[in-house]
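User: I'm curious whether this sequence folds into something compact or stays loose and floppy. Could you predict its structure so I can see for myself?
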Amino acid sequence: MKTIQFIDKDKNKLQFFATLRSRVDGYFKENQISKNYNSGMVIKTITLLALYILPFVFILFFSQMAWLTIVLFIIMGIALAGIGMSIMHDANHGSYSNSSKANYWLGHTLNLLGGAVINWKLQHNILHHTYTNVTDYDDDIEDKLIMRFSPHTEVRWYHKLQHVYAFLFYGILTLYWVVLKDFVQYSKYTKAGVNKLSPSENRVALLKIILSKLVYYAVFIILPIFILKVETGPYLIGFFLMHFLAGFILSVTFQLAHTVEHTSHPLPNEHGTIENTWAIHQLNTTVNFSRRNKFISWYVGGLNFQVEHHLFPSICHVHYPAIAPIVKQTAEEYGIPYLENETLWQAIKSHVNTLRRFGNPELAA
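Assistant: Here's the prediction. I'll summarize afterward.
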């Protein structure tokens, strides 16, 4: 992959992020608080992990009723998405704790989704956060099977209906992750040079991915069905429902931040340059939603504060509601749009409208 540079000669724009960073740093210094976890984050971590682990233990050893098994898997699916958005996400950004060991182990809660940390960091931390909404660089907006997330890729006839079938498609995310995604990404990122590991390090990385998958299959398939002999039908229905629900929640939450109206999809010029500063590029390609809804903010791990997250990924999400007014005020002072949808429903409608626009050849031309 060719390197893209963000360059803007406007001195006023260059001062924006320096000013903003100084003000945000000042907030933490003045209030004498850490940029990492607080007691609320610890309580959330314990709660979400308990809601995932305890129902599974009950399913394995105590559940004798099919309906109860399915209900418990639904609870696990909701908790699983919460773990991915809150605990795993912050830890793999290095923002959960100032301890690298704590971040390392909490980051591996990604294994509960059946994923691999090495690929997630390359896709999310490197490609998505650096090249947000840049076609062929940001993997999150890459065309996937029957979905088109960029205005710069080829439009096919079936894309006209993508705003209808998209939400069904979103539900397979974590199942695809468990089975194929990590192997596809491992090969892709190695060939593209995104993966900077040496050949010997990559062999170890691949072995870790394979072993993590085998452990996952052993715990969720072999142990319950072949050793503990749980009732297979309700168990498999619940298992797939858990993954569908988690995949749906995760996919929709991330899509509401970038594949919505008013975001830009800039392309680099012939010199590999995007004529903008990186920080303002983040503001132009990212949208907040429902930031005044405390429950949504708690559950989605501050991912409804995507503007703040993209500008300050090293700050734990529990602080986003406090620094959001600072970000918005500073952006307005510099004449930079601060994009947001006030409610979850507005964000969903905006996403559907965008999918419809990207899927219609006449509108996308």
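Summary: The radius of gyration is 21 Å. The chain has a mean pLDDT of 95.
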